[in-house]
Design brief:
Number of strands of chain B: 5
Helix content of chain B: 25-40%
Oligomer: heterodimer
Largest sheet of chain B: 4 strands, antiparallel
Largest sheet of chain A: 7 strands, parallel
Radius of gyration of chain B: 13 Å
Order of helices and strands of chain B: EHHEEHEE
Strand order of the largest sheet of chain B: 2-3-1-4
Strand order of the largest sheet of chain A: 2-5-1-8-10-11-22
């Protein structure tokens, strides 16, 4: 977070901005369901923070290494939910387990996301000199309530969260009076329908949203493949992850004086000129050699001892880097250069072992140097922090992508926020922490950025519904980076980002506070949505607590009043409706501007919307037809209402399907 | 003797504002299924009573099926697990 908020235009030093207009979110309570909290972290100091908001009905629960006195006016809630986890994991030994049977965070993940959403301001923080600056949350005076429902399983070295415990945590959070719920938790494909309680988060979120609580969830880390985005219920605000305009270039200096800038978090001393090797058979040996990173262990120690090793991998997960470093170090090697596809999962290597990532092009350059030189050598310098130009913003490779696999007409993710190499607080027992701070990547880190922004918007507009807040965030998002440069989406290959990568775009907090118009939704709209999706009237009735009769024929999901239009199967002309609510000046006139998707004709009626003291809500219709003669992929465009002060933009995504429900691989 | 697993019994919007009354209704539902107050107490894992109504309980497959057949029950599903993102 030492860069996140300045990058998004929420600088604490600006005399007049959303941060200061809202007293940094002091009256807002952010509930977080995660792995718990490390209460001693300075990010939870309550210096200068006023009394606990009067609507708070929660508290702090004591347990192992945690008592209620760990709470203060910043950390106002801490509870834990373990009953279902214990019932399902009979081998779990709560006495011997590393995790704490209390709200205390063993993993550090919960502490990290809490910092991002609402941590207090702490200057002079870095990771071993990298990414230095001021750590703080999006709403630095907001109150934090931690609901621990995710537990560390020693045997499997993973954290897991039981649906039954999660639901209890959400139920308690609703009772306690949180204003925002932030969940950096997900499920793997295939997903469950929104009304299926197996997706406990969707069920809990539905009831939270009906009570005015905005629920923000991570979209998942299963990218860049399409149809991988999770937490896709239309009442949830689903978040994708981008990079910041920050990187950690690490000079690799070859013996021929060519300087290559790789990426690493190497904070050790400079490694002077050292022999460089790519393990491959010289042609006269019976030994086994491999230059594949995950197979470096088959090389003899002699091959790698005292050298820097170059290897190539097609795998993106971080464990490939850490295991390559381990194999080289075990053999007596001094460093490793990993050539790979960008995976946006940079981490330091254990014991400050030099491990530097490059792409295939630069890796091949190094390989050509090795092969053309009898005694290749290399020098590796410590990583530096590069902020601003020329570092561009990318949707992270790992960030899960749309379209939505349950309801393709509902655009997911909704929005994107920085979630790569974010420096925030953690548990002090966590590997790779530096004085209680760590850099982590994931949509886990992007979701609380949005939670922080929601807290600020909510502080300004207490009466806005979760749907109105979501609309404000989506319709005002940047479709470029904050400096006007286009956002790319990492993947194979890297491409320009589209709504399936980032929803409405990159969150623009300042604009979200004053959107002009919003696409609002309430209980009746969600009922119509569930009718349109074919859910039974009896299950809808029980979900919403009152008798429901769906219209006959059932309504069209295309009319669901989202801040986006997604048509997954356009064949004949369709007409859909949206309703806009004025939240800006009473007397306003908006005109429409459309960027149609390629080969798609759009007509909007009326083309002008007039709002005044008696007309706060106005509907418009969009007629859509295709000129394509074949089944196409998705094409993208946008629809903007503008009064010359506000630009209310929604993404358009249209796929022509002449032959419906058809799949081919030609 | 059948193996029990945690199931979530989801009842939708709560029918009463008093959380104690909501939880009591959950215990009663389990009691009538399992036949004794003590078994119901031992089976109960969580009572959801503030934002919505439902409970988590240790149930066999056949017990879960019996509950699912009750008209006031929306869903009964085995517990499942999420991971950090």
């Amino acid at each position: 977070t030492t860069r996140t908020w300045d990058y998004l235009g929420l600088s604490a030093t600006s005399p007049k901005n959303l941060l200061n207009d809202t007293n940094m979110g002091e009256e807002v309570i952010i509930g977080i369901v995660d792995t718990g909290v490390w209460p001693e972290s300075e990010v939870f100091n309550d210096n200068g923070i006023g009394p606990v908001p009067s609507h708070w009905k929660g508290g702090c629960e004591s347990g192992e290494m945690f008592n209620s006195s760990h709470c203060n006016k910043k950390l106002i809630g801490a509870k834990y939910f373990i009953s279902a986890f214990l019932a399902e994991n009979e081998s779990f030994n709560s006495t011997e387990s590393l995790d704490f049977i209390s709200p205390r965070d063993f993993d550090g993940h919960g502490t990290h996301v809490a910092t991002i959403a609402g941590g207090s301001v702490l200057s002079g923080i870095s990771y071993k000199g990298l990414a230095g600056g001021t750590v703080r949350g999006g709403a630095p005076r907001a109150r934090i309530a931690m609901y621990k429902a995710c537990w560390y399983l020693d045997d499997e070295d993973v954290n897991t969260c039981s649906s039954a415990d999660l639901l209890k945590a959400m139920d308690e959070a609703i009772h306690d009076g949180v204003d925002v719920l932030s969940l950096s938790i997900g499920y793997r494909v295939p997903f469950y329908p929104e009304t299926d309680v197996r997706d406990g988060m969707a069920t809990g979120a539905f009831h939270a949203v009906l009570k005015g609580i905005t629920v923000v969830c991570s979209g998942g880390n299963a990218g860049p493949a399409p149809q991988t985005v999770g937490n896709i219920a239309p009442w949830i605000l689903t978040v994708a992850a981008t990079t910041l305009d920050r990187s950690f270039p690490t000079p690799i200096i070859l013996g021929n004086n060519k300087v290559i800038l790789g990426q690493a978090m190497y904070a050790g001393p400079e490694l002077g000129f050292t022999s460089l090797v790519y393990p491959e058979n010289p042609g006269n040996s019976n030994e086994s050699f491999s230059g594949t990173c995950e197979l470096l262990f088959i090389n003899s120690n002699v091959t790698m001892a005292g050298k820097v090793v170059l290897c190539f991998t097609t795998l993106k997960r971080y464990s490939t880097v850490s295991s390559a470093a381990y194999y080289v170090k075990r053999a007596g090697g001094l460093g490793v250069i990993i050539a790979r596809h960008p995976g946006d999962t940079l981490l330091p290597c254990l014991d400050d072992f030099p491990c530097v990532a490059v792409d295939y092009e630069l890796g091949t350059n190094i390989l050509l140097y090795i092969r053309s030189n009898g005694s290749p050598v290399v020098k590796i310098e410590p990583s530096k922090t590069l902020v601003g130009y020329p570092v561009g913003t990318k949707v992270a490779d790992f960030s899960s992508r749309g379209p939505n696999s349950i309801a393709p007409a509902i655009l997911k993710p909704d929005i994107a926020a920085p979630g790569v190499s974010i420096l925030a607080a953690t548990a002090t027992n966590r590997t790779f922490n530096d004085r209680g701070f760590i850099m982590l990547s994931g949509t886990s880190m992007a979701a609380p950025v949005i939670s922080g922004v929601v807290a600020l918007v909510k502080a300004l507009h207490r009466d806005w519904s979760p749907a109105a807040i979501r609309s404000a965030i989506v319709t005002t998002a940047w479709r470029t980076d904050p400096f006007g440069e286009q956002i790319f989406a990492n993947g194979s290959p890297r491409k320009l980002a589209d709504p399936f990568d980032y929803g409405g775009g990159l969150v623009n907090p300042e604009k979200a506070a004053n959107p002009g118009l919003v696409y609002d939704l309430g209980l009746e709209d969600y009922i119509v949505y569930m009718c349109s999706e074919g859910y039974t009237e009896s299950s809808i009735s029980q979900l919403v607590g009152k008798g429901t009769v769906c219209s006959n024929p059932r309504p069209s999901v295309l009319d669901f009043n989202l801040p986006s239009i997604t048509i997954p199967n356009l064949k004949e002309e369709v007409t859909l409706t949206r309703i806009l609510t004025n939240v800006g000046p009473l007397d306003s006139v908006y005109k429409v501007a459309v960027e149609p998707p390629f080969g798609v004709q759009l007509t909007v009626a009326p083309e002008t919307l007039v709002f005044n003291s008696t007309t706060k809500r106005v509907s418009f219709k969009v007629r859509v037809s295709t000129t394509h003669k074949i089944n196409t992929g998705y094409y993208f465009g946008s629809l903007t209402w503008s009064d010359s002060v506000h630009n209310v933009t929604i993404p358009l995504s249209v796929r022509t399907q002449i032959l419906q429900d058809y799949y081919d691989e030609n | 003797g059948a193996q029990t697993k945690v199931h979530i019994v989801y009842l939708g919007e709560k029918q009463h504002d008093d959380p104690e009354v909501v939880t009591e209704s959950h215990h009663r539902m389990l009691w009538s299924l399992l036949g004794s107050k003590e078994d119901a107490h031992n089976s109960m894992v969580h009572s959801y009573r503030h934002g919505f109504s439902g409970f988590a309980a240790k149930l066999t497959k056949s017990q879960a099926k019996k509950l699912a057949d009750l008209p006031e029950v929306v869903h009964v599903t085995p517990d499942s697990f999420y991971e950090l993102a």
